[in-house]
Amino acid sequence: MNKLIILIALFFTSLAFALPEDAKQPIEIEAQSVVVDETTGFNEFSGNAEVKQGSLLLFAELIQVQTNSDGVETMIAKGTLEKPAKYIQSQENQGRFIEATATLITYNVNEGMIFLVGNAHLVQGFDSFSGDSLNYDINNDKVVVKGSEEGTERVKFKIVL
Question: How far is CA 11 from CA 62, 71, 81, in A?
Fold first, then answer.
């Protein structure tokens, strides 16, 4: 089956993005299949789904996008342990891309927050973070990592000098 390419003419106008030019770019979504519900604003893209907006990239087997009259509210990327969801974006103050993986990635556009759950891992510059869950504040360049509730998984942080 040929990939379905959808160009959504929505912009993230209410968010101070990592790269200012990203907010001015259209959102492009590519997947094997799509379900669009214009009444509720719920859109589901499945089959190696990819979201691109400027330097922002989001990859997963399934990506759900919730929209409202102002634009995109959230993007939820669902992966597996074998093939986790992935987020990549260039940052103004970093020489390298921010890269994150988890079994579930929720991107709250209005808050400028990325929530990673399940085998969460983030590389920021030359530093890396991992834990059961991880929150990344795009606007303030801040990372919060938590181990598992049961205490079986601890937080790991690596600084390369």
Answer: 21, 7, 31
